[in-house]
Structure formats: C-alpha cells, structure tokens
Amino acid sequence: INYAESVITINSKAGVEALMQKKKVIVMGKSYYSKKNLVVRFKDFKLIGNYLNRELPSDFDKNFNIFFSNLKKYSFDAELYVNTNVNIDKFSKLIALVFSNKGFME
C-alpha cells in the first residue's frame, strides 16, 4: 500500500489502510467504509481505467476526518478472535449500537 497510487478491494481491511494513507480506493463489494464518498464504487470493469485516473474528491479531507473520528468514537476495544466473556460483551455492545442506528457513521 505504501507504494501504491490506488487500491482495488472487495471490502477488506486493505481499503481502510489505503484510506488512512489517503490513497484512491476502488471498492468492488459492500464495505462499512464505502458510505461516505471516500471511495469509488466499482460498477463496470470496462471503465477500470477511468476509476484509476480519477482524482480524490474535493471533499475527501472533510469526509476522511468525519469517518475516522466516528470510527474511533463508536469503536470498542475488543479483539475479533478472542472468545472471552469480556470481549464478547464488548462486541455485543458495538453490534447493538450499530443496529440502534444512533448516528453511527453519520
């Protein structure tokens, strides 16, 4: 990612890592980070050159700051593959927050 100009992904963590480095990200699937005009949604393989040649949107920095501020604000300190009661409780709270739709990722 460090040496890439753009990153093409389905919905992986590589897309977020590329965004953190302010790279152009092309998403081919559904991802939690593709909702805020930070990435290009891939729709037609014939147009891949057009996608790669696009500049970052003019409001990228604004959306970048909002997205990562909210990501930090609404994240819980938990480990994905640790099955302790404390960790499961942390993930349960995050899931409840997301489904309660209380401004998550606005």
How would you describe this protein?
With 106 residues, this protein is mainly α. Helices cover 42% and strands 9% of the residues. The chain has four helices and three strands, in the order βαββααα. The chain has helices at 13-20, 48-53, 60-73, 85-100, and strands at residues 6-9, 24-27, 40-41. Strands 1-2-3 form a three-stranded parallel β-sheet, covered by helices on one side. The longest helix is centred in the C-terminal third of the chain and has 16 residues, at 85-100. It is elongated and about 50 Å long. The mean pLDDT is 79.
Reading the helices and strands in chain order gives EHEEHHH
| Structure annotation, total helices | 4
Fraction of residues in H or I helices: 40-55%
Q: Structural class, judged by helices and strands? A: mainly alpha
Sheet with most strands: strand arrangement: 1-2-3
Largest sheet: number of strands, sense, barrel closure: 3 strands, parallel
Number of strands: 3
The overall pLDDT, averaged over residues, is 79
Give the low-confidence spans. Answer: none
Shape: elongated
Beta-strand percentage?
5-15%
Radius of gyration: 16 Å
